[in-house]
Specification:
Elements lengths: L7 E4 L5 H12 L3 E6 L2 H11 L3 E5 L5 H14 L3 E6 L14 H20 L5 E10 L12 H20 L6 E7 L5 H4 L5 H13 L9 H12 L10 E4 L3 H4 L1
Parallel strand pairs: 1-2, 1-4, 2-3, 4-5, 5-6, 6-7
Helix pairs in contact: 1-8, 4-5
Bound molecules: NADP nicotinamide-adenine-dinucleotide phosphate (NAP).
């Protein structure tokens, strides 16, 4: 039997990379999935590739009106939500000396504020016994040059998971994080000035992984499926590393 049959899920940043892989996997397991993102063209392509059990709602997670519009639509169409994957994120790498207030605020607005309000605004619609998954990062456990703001945002969302597990326990909503290692998605390209530099970045990340390679988005989707499903019924408040061994032994 499918693991998410009849469930309604939201995946922010579901038009690319890890979020798209999660949306596809959830639909394959019987869920109806709402994906979000800012780029309408990428949302259209994503829905075309996922099929009729997915719907796109364009929006910016840093904008509360956009979040409210998403949930108003889901309330009208489905009446409730079982699973939220707060996945949308950006890196905005800058060495400490070059860090600007503008970039710092933007990375925190998307990666921290966006995650908090994506979950908070959904609570009136969340069904009891639901699951919340936030995407943290191996970066919280490493000192990666240029990642001051990014790594701190991912430590913040890991912390949310602890607080929310306690706050939502009476509703039996399980909250967990996944910390991916380096995964081969467009986020790698977003950190490099040109394709050659992006290739170099991929090679240097892969070299730091005990398994000797980048991860694939599907490998994060498999972990998200586990945490979203009843297979993880006694798993709460954890941060699951899916990183080829980087944080355990790298
Ligand atoms: P990606 O392919 O670049 O996807 C990022 C997604 O977030 C896109 O769908 C993007 O869509 C969306 N997004 C960005 N800003 C947004 C905003 N303000 N509002 C709504 N959506 C927004 O990168 P990815 O690797 O799949 O990243 C997914 C998550 O995994 C991120 O939180 C990232 O930090 C985390 N992560 C990735 C890695 C890795 O190595 N790939 C490692 C650890 C953690 P639009 O651009 O259309 O808005």
């Amino acid at each position: 039997m499918s693991k998410l049959q009849g469930k309604v899920a939201v995946v922010t940043g579901g038009n690319s990379g890890i979020g798209l892989a999660i949306a596809k996997r959830f639909v394959a397991e019987g869920a109806f999935v709402y994906i979000t993102g800012r780029r309408q063209s990428e949302l259209d392509n994503a829905v075309a590739s996922i099929g009729s059990q997915a719907k796109a709602v364009q929006g910016d997670v840093a904008n509360l009106d956009d979040i409210d519009r998403l949930y108003a639509k889901i309330r009208d169409e489905k009446g409730g939500i079982d699973i939220i994957v707060a996945n949308a994120g950006i890196v905005g790498p800058q060495p400490l000396e070059e860090t600007t207030a503008e970039t710092f605020d933007k990375v925190f607005a998307v990666n921290v504020r966006g995650v908090l309000f994506t979950v908070k605004q959904a609570l009136p619609l969340m069904n009891d016994r639901g699951a919340v998954i936030v995407i943290s990062s191996m970066a919280t456990a490493k000192g990666i040059p240029g990642y001051s703001a990014y790594s701190a945002t991912k430590a913040a969302v890991r912390s949310f998971v602890r607080t929310w597990t306690a706050e939502l326990k009476s509703r039996h909503i399980r909250v967990n994080a996944i910390s991916p290692g380096p995964i081969d998605t467009p986020i790698m390209d977003s950190q490099a000035p040109n394709p050659e530099a992006a290739d170099k970045l991929r090679t240097s990340f892969a070299a730091a992984v005990p398994l000797g390679r980048l991860g694939q988005p599907d490998e994060i989707a498999a972990a998200a499926l586990f945490l979203a499903s009843d297979e993880a019924s006694y798993v709460a408040g954890v941060d699951l590393p899916v990183d080829g061994g980087v944080t355990a032994i790298g």
